[in-house]
Design a protein that fits this description.
alpha+beta, BirA Bifunctional Protein, domain 2, 3-stranded antiparallel sheet
């Protein structure tokens, strides 16, 4: 592109019109199903700290990386099924599937199980991509599959995530090109590396929708944990043509456990040389007041649009993304 044309949008006007149609279709999906659209602040004084994601800081606070804590405050105050589709922000995320400013769709279903939510996620994706709808369950549509985390790791990476030793995981990661920082990596970090390097390419080659569930407890974030050997997170991820599209939880309701998890993340951040982040006290107060039993999910809208438009990157479906490179 000529330098004097850099002001022009990346996506063409027909593509942006198509994007608007897809966003309208998403809203129509939820309107038809009785899920209420809500709005929460983009500017936050405090956050729910995450280890591998950094919020964008500005003079007045932080730009939200997810509306999760504010939406859970609404749920604790008595809201029913709710969704939000709007802008979210994360620092240092630029690439074919990432932009620091992006569109996130998040919704919560009080009283629902994770299996019910997975079915609704599949229905939404099939609606937007114009694929045959699932009829009997989250994995009933043509070309879809439901694997546990352990099954996916064994099938695609050749490793049992529950039994492999740290040395075995490091050896596998080193064979996949991991750098010399392996010795300091936690077990879950090593497994995450193998998921990206081995599982995601295999899912991309297979194509279609693939749900992964029963994640390690260490990857629970804000999900409930099922005690046992091994302890499992009530969490799923949806991959479509090998692209991670959705992340869902049976939501944790124990306020003190949630507090301890957030404090633990801050300790890990400091250990890794990052700054601790202010924890959202209002969110924790809402948890103490009582979050109803619910399942919730976040979907990357730009990735969903990329799949619908069959483009090579999310930037091709956006007007003014941050330039790559």
């Amino acid at each position: 592109m000529r330098k004097d044309a850099d002001w022009r949008p990346v996506a063409s006007w027909p593509v942006l019109q198509r994007r608007a149609q897809l966003l309208a279709r998403i809203r129509a999906f939820f309107l038809q199903r009785g899920v209420v659209e809500v709005e929460t602040p983009l500017l936050l004084a405090a956050v729910a700290p995450e280890l591998h994601q950094d919020p964008i800081r500005c003079a007045a606070g932080y730009l939200q990386g997810s509306p999760e804590t504010a939406m859970k405050r609404l749920l604790a105050a008595g809201a029913g099924s709710i969704y939000q589709m709007g802008r979210a922000f994360r620092a240092d995320e630029v690439g074919r599937l990432h932009n620091p400013e992006f569109t996130l769709l998040e919704w919560y279903r009080p009283g629902w199980t994770l299996a019910e939510l997975m079915q609704e996620v599949a229905l939404l994706v099939c609606t937007i991509l114009e694929w045959p709808h699932p009829t009997g369950g989250c994995s009933a549509s043509e070309g879809s599959l439901h694997l546990t985390y352990a099954e996916a790791m064994q099938r695609c990476a050749g490793v049992d995530p529950w039994c492999a030793t740290l040395d075995q995981l490091r050896q596998l990661c080193r064979a996949e090109g991991a750098d010399t920082a392996l010795e300091g990596m936690e077990r879950q970090d090593l497994l995450d590396f193998l998921l990206v390097q081995k599982v995601e390419p295999a899912l991309r080659a297979q194509g279609g929708m693939v749900f992964l569930s029963d994640f390690p407890a260490a990857a629970a974030a804000m999900a409930e944990i099922v005690p046992g050997e091994p302890a499992l997170a009530r969490r799923f991820e949806l991959y479509v043509n090998g692209i991670e599209l959705a992340n869902g939880y049976q939501e944790l309701r124990d306020a003190e456990e949630q507090r301890q998890r957030l404090l633990a993340v801050n300790r890990q951040r400091v250990e890794q040389g990052k700054s601790a982040l202010p924890v959202d006290a209002l969110f924790l107060q809402a948890m103490e007041a009582g979050l109803p039993p619910c399942a919730g999910v976040a979907v990357g809208v730009d990735r969903l649009i990329m799949l619908a438009l069959q483009t090579a990157s999310i930037q091709e479906g956006m007007a003014f993304p941050l330039p790559l490179g």
